[in-house]
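Subject: Sanity check before I submit

Could someone independently write out the structure tokens for this chain? I want to compare against mine line by line before I put it in a report. The sequence has 207 residues.
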Amino acid sequence: MEATSILNNGGKNDIESNRSYQDNSIDLVTIEEIMENYEENKIAIQKYIKFKCDECEVDPSPVGAFLNEKIIPTLRDGLCKMLREVKQDDSFYKPRSTLNGLDFLSEYLYNMNPLHPERKSNWTYIFDVQWVVDFLENSPRPFYPLSLIWSKDVAAKKIQSFWKGYCDRKKEEVREIREFWKNIDGKEGVHYPPIEVTYEVDDTNNQ
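---
Independent answer below. Compare away.
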């Protein structure tokens, strides 16, 4: 009984303390004053920023204007086109690819140069540009491995032909023939007689 009475009294005390806290809440007048001060400070800061901007007018940089008007739009279009090429080549899913992003962008920017509009109609491959040819003569690149040059179909045919030849070379009769010709080729002074091949021509169709 004493425990329940203590718990009940404790609950009543908590409720009364919450009521007293609600009664001591911030007055609405104080909130309105805070909002008015905030708006006044905000307006003052905006006027100050506008005054400083009008006072310190800076002429636009010619380099920045050229970048914004000429380079960035062309570069943006080149990046979008490069992403489409990467998606078409499935380079997202391959660790290595023949598609070089720097070469692609260099070729695109060279042919789409705003200072040379004639290049757009006469597209030039990047490795046919004279300064690229001169650079590669002094610093040649290594050749691409066949795994990057061949397509999936060509690679599959090469693998299948190699495996078929390997299986044929493992046969006993084929191994004997190969050993026979190896022994003959290893002997010195062995001359094979020339093989004469004659062809019979059927003249009945010409008559």
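---
OP: Matches mine. For the report I'm noting this point. Residues 27-58 form one domain.
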